[in-house]
């Protein structure tokens, strides 16, 4: 008979007769969520905790294994098992009253911040790679190398276009992975596509362009950023071949040709040819093109139309959004205006992350990381599509050949904002498709699969099916 | 008799009979400047090089010592002496034809980029601390600690206001060093004062404020940023007590109360009282207040007028401009507008440098670094004032009790832009005072002393005296 454990004041007498491992995992998860156990802290050895609780060691091992699978703890060899991530647990009695407010039919300016802050057991928001795979050791090694060789003036004010080493590394990276031929002088380092859009809006307005057509459906975030910075964003419909180029009525357009957001359509060769003869400025948002699974690479539009395309990319989907590092490859006509905008935005991006990234690109580390991510993501995509086939047999799945997310549409009258709210009530976060559409669209959800392991994805899809069932 | 060294094809037969160490140092400096020797590369062992050149080992040691003093090489224990920084040598026959273009009477939008790129032997631009002191090892240790404990979601999109850990650390730092009482919710992390001004311009315009008075003389860079982002910047004169508050005709003003840029005046108590009853929004640019030498600390205006002051600061003068990390402490009335501006500017700053900085602030490392800088800077300030007394006896020196620079004014009719151009022709970079003035001012130069060792400062001042003599 055991006296319980001082650790978290656990007492196995509180546990149900069956499901001891479930009980223990839940107690640990809750302790991590409310910070009684902090990130970096070590869990007791399985043998010790099992003895204190008077349970078999297998129960503790199983509980630790589940938390590890969820990404909350990790084995650190002889350092034992340590807490690495805080789960976002639903706070009882709080979010249930606000989920509807989180998913209005017309989302506010802070919609993504509100959604990010909303507690949820499972987060299927699109746009994030597997962050547990972030190459911490390689990053630190590269940072040490950079700090060792950096000259003192490199710590001063720098070129607003970015560190020369990174601009060179980016041209090589884009040549290898996207078929783009560019010089370092064509590149402006930015803090991500959000800043890229802000700078472009300013540069286009300096050229008296105040409208940029966008795909419909197309990213709500992109549209919001362009609108905030003074650009009108008239919608141009997307069909199974991609943007309907013939419908363009503006001097500039923003496209996602490699993997249209959110439909996942690849811009068809005939549409590419139409764009080539169209003649306006094309902003290519190549947000996740590196992630492809069952198809040959689609070269960037920039590769074939260098003078017409302003190309935007970032490491948000390759390494981590928190790095806030991306690039613009700008045709000469707009270059000076973009550099002026960058100078007055922030005098140039932070130097150290730029130089570390250049090191990772030049050393082949980033390509290795991409291969690792690709293997992991394809398994997760398969798990999500299987779960959808099992739990949502009536749903149509779009855009699974590439990217970090897929889109499902439903043959129902239920508004997808209501579905997203009901799913969040069940602890699962996802974005309604209608947020990303300017014209009426079939109800649907945009579901990220890259950031969660297979079991969590299956659980998330099951909860969405349950939410749909409740509403239907 | 020696056969010379393969290393850089050095041959001591080329050297003058006296001054072998001078000759060797110059050859090495030139090889570093034109990249024959790259940063990170190791110099030959003194014993080896001395033998190859057929000179005494003391000659080589002395040459290495000079380069180390200049910050171009550093001893790395058993790794020997390695190149750490590239000197900016004048490129013969190039800059002489363009120095006048670098110092127009009305500088262009890219003036500071042009000046930064101009080659010079000695750079006395203000605004940069001793960058050779950057705490590389402490930074790397803190980064390792951060990467070890970071949870995966921290690599995702974050709060646009900045990492909570840094916002908390900043409030503690500002309480300790500047007497400011603030909550983390008052703080918005920005990429430096340049971005702070961009965000404030947007927030003020959202409140229908389109004019912000600035000190005259006052920072050209600040004025340029505000103008670019749509704000008018009417000048208000500065006298020996600081800003002439009675002359204010706007609803907002930007001041540098602790150490007025560029006159170095401290805002007098009676002027502080006038500002307190003035009633408009005060933007406090506290750009270098941590650096004080012969006077007690001047508390921030924000400390006494928390609701009227929007406070801006950064680590550019504390650690390095290349980190692009700063903060705004925003009164509640303008907070939402500033957060919206930050969200649409870049979705928030890069996470890793924020967390590393929080670690350095919380651990006391940053305070240690500041104490080290202060000791070093005061010696450099003394060296510069001594050199001015020796070489420029007619000059008046302003603002030496604090900061990273001083300002000299001259009783002459020579325009200070011509003087700056002539100094650059002699290899010394400095900013003309008239750049920073909207109304006519006495000719002068703004001279940074923090980034150069004493011998270099003396040499720079001597060259400026020579330039003045040539023109007079």
Q: Quaternary state, please?
A: homodimer
Could you say what the CATH architecture of the largest domain in chain A is? 3-Layer(aba) Sandwich
Which pair of chains has the greatest number of interface residues, and how are they split between the two chains? Answer: A-B, 65 and 66 residues
CATH topology of the largest domain in chain A: Aspartate Aminotransferase, domain 2
Shape by Cα distribution of chain A? globular
Name of the top-level CATH class of the largest domain in chain A: Alpha Beta
Largest sheet of chain A: 8 strands, mixed
Strand content of chain A: 5-15%
Class per helix and strand makeup of chain A: alpha/beta
Helix content of chain A: 40-55%
Q: Ends of chain A: how far apart? A: 51 Å
Number of folding domains of chain A? 3
User: Quick one: how many beta strands of chain A?
Assistant: 16
Spatial order of strands in the largest sheet of chain A: 4-11-10-9-8-5-6-7
Radius of gyration of chain A: 24 Å
Brief summary of the model shown:
Chain A is built from 16 helices and 16 strands. With 472 residues, chain A is α/β, with parallel strands linked by helices.
Give an overview of the whole structure.
Two copies of one chain form a homodimer. Chain A is an alpha/beta fold. Chain A has three domains: 4-83, Arc Repressor Mutant, subunit A; 96-133 and 368-471, Aspartate Aminotransferase, domain 1, CATH 3.90.1150; 148-365, Type I PLP-dependent aspartate aminotransferase-like (Major domain) (Aspartate Aminotransferase, domain 2). The first copy, chain A, has helices spanning 20-33, 46-53, 57-69, 99-102, 111-117, 136-149, 164-178, 193-206, 220-228, 269-278, 301-304, 332-346, 351-362, 365-391, 416-425, 454-471; strands at 73-75, 81-83, 122-123, 187-190, 213-216, 235-239, 242-243, 252-255, 281-285, 309-314, 326-329, 396-398, 405-409, 428-429, 431-432, 444-448. In chain A, a hairpin with a 6-residue loop joins strand 12 and strand 13 (405-409). Residues 89-97 of chain A have low confidence and may be disordered. The interface between A and B is large, with 65 and 66 residues.
């Amino acid at each position: 008979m055991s006296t319980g454990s001082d650790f978290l004041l656990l007492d196995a007498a509180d546990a149900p007769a069956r499901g001891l491992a479930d009980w223990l995992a839940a107690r640990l998860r809750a302790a991590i969520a409310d910070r009684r156990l902090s990130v970096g802290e070590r869990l007791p050895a399985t043998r010790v905790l099992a003895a204190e609780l008077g349970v078999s060691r297998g129960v503790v091992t199983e509980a630790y294994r589940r938390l590890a699978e969820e990404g909350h703890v990790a084995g650190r060899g002889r350092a034992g098992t340590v807490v690495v991530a805080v789960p976002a647990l639903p706070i009882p009695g709080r979010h249930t009253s606000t989920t509807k407010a989180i998913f209005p039919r017309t989302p506010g300016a802070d919609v993504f911040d509100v959604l990010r802050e909303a507690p949820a057991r499972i987060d299927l928001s699109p746009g994030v790679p597997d962050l547990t795979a972030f190459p911490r050791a390689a990053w630190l090694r590269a940072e040490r190398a950079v700090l060792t060789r950096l000259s003192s003036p490199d710590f001063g004010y720098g070129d607003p276009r970015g560190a020369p080493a990174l601009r060179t590394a980016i041209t090589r990276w884009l040549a290898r992975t996207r078929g783009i031929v560019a010089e370092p002088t064509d590149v402006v380092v930015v803090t991500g596509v959000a800043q890229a859009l802000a700078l472009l809006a300013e540069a286009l307005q300096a050229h008296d362009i105040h409208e940029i057509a966008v795909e419909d459906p197309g990213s709500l975030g992109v549209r919001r950023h362009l609108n905030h910075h003074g650009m009108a964003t008239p919608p141009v419909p997307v069909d199974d071949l991609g943007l309907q180029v013939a419908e363009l009525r503006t001097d500039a357009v923003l496209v996602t040709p490699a993997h249209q957001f959110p439909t996942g359509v690849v811009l068809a060769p005939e549409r590419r040819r139409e764009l080539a003869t169209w003649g306006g400025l094309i902003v290519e948002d190549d947000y996740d093109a590196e992630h492809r699974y069952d198809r040959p690479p689609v070269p960037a539009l920039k590769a074939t139309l260098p003078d017409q395309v302003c190309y935007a990319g970032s490491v948000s989907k390759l390494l981590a959004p928190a790095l806030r590092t991306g690039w613009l490859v700008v045709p000469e006509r707009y270059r000076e205006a973009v550099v002026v905008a960058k100078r007055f935005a922030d005098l140039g991006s932070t130097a150290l992350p730029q130089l570390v990234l250049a090191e990772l690109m030049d050393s082949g580390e980033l390509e290795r990381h991409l291969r690792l991510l690709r293997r992991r993501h394809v398994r997760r995509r398969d798990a999500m599509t299987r779960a959808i086939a099992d739990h949502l047999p009536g749903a149509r799945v779009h855009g699974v050949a590439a990217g970090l997310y897929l889109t499902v549409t439903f043959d129902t009258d239920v508004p997808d904002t209501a579905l997203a709210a009901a799913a969040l009530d069940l602890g699962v976060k996802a974005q309604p498709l209608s947020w990303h559409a300017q014209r009426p669209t079939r109800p649907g959800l945009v579901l990220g699969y890259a950031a969660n392991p297979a079991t969590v994805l299956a659980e998330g899809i099951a909860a969405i099916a349950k939410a749909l069932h409740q509403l239907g």
